[in-house]
Amino acid sequence: MRRVSLVLVLAIVSLGISAQEKPKTGWVYTPMPNLSYNTDQGLNLGAFCDFFYYGDGTVYPNFLHHAGFSAAFATKGSWFAHFYYESVALVPGLRVSASATYRDCYANNFYGFNGIASPFLPELELNKETRTAWYTNRRRFFRAAAAMQGSVSGHLQWVGGLVFRHVMMDDFSLRNYDSGRSLYLRYRDIGLIEPEEFSGGTSLELKGGLIYDTRDVELFPSKGIYAEGLLVGNADLRQWHYNYLQLSLHWRHYLTLVPGRLIFGYHLGLQHTLAGEVPFYNINELATIHYAYEENSGLGSRYSIRGFRYNRIAAAGYAWANVELRVIPLRFDLWKQHFDIVFNPFVDLASITRTYRMDRQANYADVFQDRKLPVAASAGMGVKLHMNTNFILSVDFGKAFDPELSDFMVGMATTYVF
């Protein structure tokens, strides 16, 4: 859903001339209008600016410092402001990052627990004639995060971070809809959402683990492996009831099939609750070290499973995979900047590894169906526009194979899904 600008470039690329990319030096910044679209969130309007510092150019296409600020309003009911900073030069030998985010999604998608076990009825989704917004609630949050990453030996690194998160939940705030009818309120009435978590909560998250990284370029690798293993502990600062421990694993592998033209990549992810209980308002949070973007939710978002409805799969544990080809038909220089056009056909897969309150959910026929989908899947096509390698505009078109997971979905962002 995030920023897509430089739309005019897409109309000019046919005039582009193949060019040999030269290193960038000093500061490079990209102030842009924030114009994007997502099927679930609508048209996104705002502004952003990214700043990259390359020094004398010897590290290019990697960078020494990166800072970015973005803010936008979405027509289907949300707005956010986000700041991010990361550096490999601020503290010698360490990569540091910090971020601060506020997001108000007053028409947030809430499809219930355990994916396909929660029935989806199209007529109950945003229907002006019946004034129904059954699969909608309001989610606001403030998040502040900081992380450090340092070398252990060779390509092996240690990593650790802190996240403060304050989440506020409420029923949706939409004109001309009946706010007394929603799945969120139904879950509260039957006890699937407990009273102490109904309005949100405040938590402090501590995470640590190891990273193995042999990628040649961080944001657009053509070869190498990125593997990450994290233990994530979350302390409930309000009720002291929802303390939990999670395991987060990622494996990303990139292979060059045709140098400079064709790359095969795949990503395997796992997030599993080992102990304790996650409050319902956090089960869609994907653990990460560096919060480069305003949200980090799934499964069913532009940064997890493409082609699913936003937040369609919510559980205490899930595994997923992204597989794609990255085809680069055109590279050119324009306005003293370097550009690449990339097409990426993809297939995404997801599976629940630990259900969430399934025993209670199964007692109510109106919010439960005895359907099992061991592996949910989607497929589609993405189009990318790179500027100076690190600035990546992305559009993905996808559809889930099961109609209850999605119709045809469109998402725009500013990076690859992995």
Overall description:
- There is one protein chain.
- The chain contains three helices and 16 strands.
- It is mainly β and about 425 residues long.
- It starts with 6 loop residues before the first helix and ends in a 5-residue tail after the last strand.
- Residues about 1-20 have low confidence and may be disordered.
- H/E topology pattern: HEEEEEEEHEEEEEEHEEE
Please provide the count of β strands. Answer: 16
Quaternary form: single chain
Helical content class: under 10%
Percentage of residues in DSSP E strands: over 45%
Short description:
The protein has 3 helices and 16 strands. With about 425 residues, the protein is mainly beta.
Spell out the blueprint of helices and strands.
Elements: H1 7-12, E1 27-38, E2 42-53, E3 65-74, E4 78-87, E5 94-109, E6 136-153, E7 156-171, H2 183-190, E8 200-213, E9 224-236, E10 244-258, E11 262-276, E12 317-334, E13 337-354, H3 358-361, E14 376-387, E15 391-400, E16 408-413
Antiparallel strand pairs: 1-2, 2-3, 3-4, 4-5, 5-6, 6-7, 7-8, 8-9, 9-10, 10-11, 11-12, 12-13, 13-14, 14-15, 15-16
